Amino acid sequence: PIAARTGCPASTRSLIANIMEKVPFTQIVHSTLACILLLGAAGCHSDEHKAGEEVRFLATTPFRTDTLVSRDYVCQIHSIQHIELRALEKGYLDGIFVDEGQPVKQGQLMFQIRPVLYQADVNKAAAEAKYAEIECRNTKALADSNVVSPNELALADARWEKARAELAMAQAHLSFTEIRAPFDGIMGRFHVRKGSLLDEGDLLSELSDNSTMWVYFNVPEAEYLAYQRNEEAENGRKVRLKMANGEPFETEGEITAIESDFNNTTGNIAFRATFANPHGLLRHGETGSILMDTPLKDVLMIPQKATFEVLDHRYVYVIGKDSVLKTEPITVGQELQHLFVITEGLKEDDKILLEGLRKVKDKEHINYRFVPADSVVTHLGLYAE
What does DSSP assign to residue 172? Predict the structure, then answer.
């Protein structure tokens, strides 16, 4: 009847009837009660097990150590010598004897301005100098015979000197038609072509000496003062260069100059570092980043993941003796990979919450497991929120 009232199918009602006929009713009741008791006991055991489970967080302490902080500065890379090659005379560009990007040696001929007019001026000046020389010698012979006065001889000698000076000037103008390399370097882009009509001062190309590079970067005032302290302690001067592709340059550099004045607009001062460039990898005009290391002695450090930020202020959870959390503000002095250098707010023996910061709140009682600081630093990447 119960099966019929519950809407069971006929086949199900028939099966139940067969069971009722073969099994005594009291046994069915006892079996049913046993199942209920077992299910109840299992439920109680499960509840007790859940009630016995406790959430445990990881905790650690700050630690003191010596370390290095690397500062990153955007920089401009310049050749130690980078000059413009300009025409010293007017005329047509008669020849180009080098190519763009080609290495050249000191004294090598690079450009030739058509020298015809300047050669003619030299020939004319040479002839006038010869004429003045002969005239001077004849006048001297006459002066020795007392035919002419000493003043006539002095005038002839002066005309000869003037002619020689004009010859030297003409020869100088002729030499200016040849533009030769003033030092070993690499040719830049051509701004003229063969046959171009040049005026005095026209730009022909550039020449760079890339054997040594000067790298310029700007440093804020506070970091400039820190550098000066390190320099006095003989811990400064050496810097590294990170190129535009993120790779480090093959050699270390050295700070060789600091500009005399701060920029009043930015509050920065310019530094210059010198890098040897033995394989010519660096070129004038490149960019990169200077990495300058600052040593820190006996500083207090904590993992970055043990902190949280509220309205531009950084905090940690300090665990009291009664395992109750207390929110403490901290002051971060330097930032390293995965670590903060703390200047205020913590002591070396404080216990701080390492994980689960989003799951707790101030003045909450927690269960935690303590992890030594050296183990935390070794496995920082393995601890997750």
Answer: H
**C-alpha–C-alpha distance, residues 357 and 307, integer Å:** 8
Ramachandran quadrant class, 218 (left: phi over 0; alpha: psi -120 to 50; beta: rest): beta
pTM for this prediction = 0.65
Q: Is 195 strand, coil or helix?
A: coil
Residue 107 has pLDDT above 50, yes or no: yes
Q: Which amino acid is at 337?
A: Q
Question: For the CA atoms of 188, 191, 197, 200, what is the dihedral angle to 10 degrees?
Answer: -70
Nearest-angstrom CA–CA distance, 303 and 60: 9
User: How far from the centroid of its chain's Cα atoms is residue 117's Cα?
Assistant: 54
Taking residues 306-329, report their average pLDDT.
Answer: 91
The answer, yes or no, to whether residue 30 has pLDDT greater than 50, is: no
- Residues 348/36, Cβ–Cβ less than 8 Å: no
The reported pLDDT for the residue numbered 50 is: 42
Strands of the chain (E only): list them: 56-60, 63-86, 91-96, 103-104, 109-113, 178-180, 185-187, 197-198, 203-220, 238-243, 253-258, 268-276, 287-303, 307-310, 313-319, 325-336, 339-344, 352-353, 367-370
Give the integer Cα–Cα distance in Å for 154 and 152: 5
Cα–Cα separations (whole angstroms), residue 111 to 83, 115, 119, 192, 321? 15, 12, 17, 10, 84
- Using alpha carbons, select from 259, 283, 257 the residue that is nearest to residue 270: 259
Residue 365's identity, in one-letter code, is H
CA distance 370 to 44: 32
Helix-then-strand count for the chain, H and E: 7, 19
CA distances from 320 to 57, 277, 293 (A): 14, 57, 37
Nearest residue to 134 via CA among 161, 160, 112: 160
3 state DSSP class of 125: helix
CA distance 326 to 352: 9
Strands 268-276, 325-336: pairing is unpaired
Strands 103-104 and 109-113: unpaired
Q: How confident is the model at residue 41 (pLDDT cuts 50, 70, 90)?
A: very low
- What's at 150, amino acid-wise? P
